[in-house]
Amino acid sequence: MSEAAAVDRTISIRAESLLADADTCKFTVNRTVHAGGPFLFENAREAAGSPLIERLFALPGVAHVLVAENVVSVGKEPDASWALLKPAIGGVIRTQLLTGMPALLEKPGCSESRVRTDAELHAAVQKLLDDEVNRSIAAHGGKISIAGVRDATLFVTMGGGCQGCAASQMTLRQGLEVMVRRVAPEIVRIVDVTDHAGGDRPFYR
Predict the structure, then answer these.
(1) Which domains does the chain have, with CATH numbers?
(2) How far are the Cα atoms of 44, 131, 196 from residue 165, in angstroms, in the given order?
(3) Residues 31-57: pLDDT tens digits?
């Protein structure tokens, strides 16, 4: 069994439709989805840069999302079916938790009209790692570092619990890429240069 599958079995999500509003359902998770809040997202544009919320709005029929600690409340369009949406929403929440990445980006970077240098892009991504990403994945014993920025490509290494972890590419592709796109849209590609066979518990050996 992979490490990701083992973690998956510890995640419990309970869906509860609201009697006062048939188009809203509350998903209560047995762990924190995002500390603080509530954080309300009323459309897909507001979700940009927040991995969990982007994926929820990608589901047909999702109208708004509210996140507070361990509860994710989702509103649907009147013609959408909960029978289809509930399992899909639960799957999105579970996948997000498995990445170990922050579910929301609270401090999006300001877009700039001028072209930034590699050094400036490096600084913008480093701030994202320091303020949002590494504080979150440190709980899993992991850390992401910048190996370099060249020609709109970001090179990263994944250390600690992320090195060789079965969920490392999920963390990278479904978490970090989304957040980097918000603070440094000039970055067009992220390359993982980690030696994943060299960790204490390598997955790719």
Answers:
(1) 3-99 (3.30.1370.70), 118-198 (3.30.300.130)
(2) 31, 23, 8
(3) 999 987 788 898 998 888 899 999 999
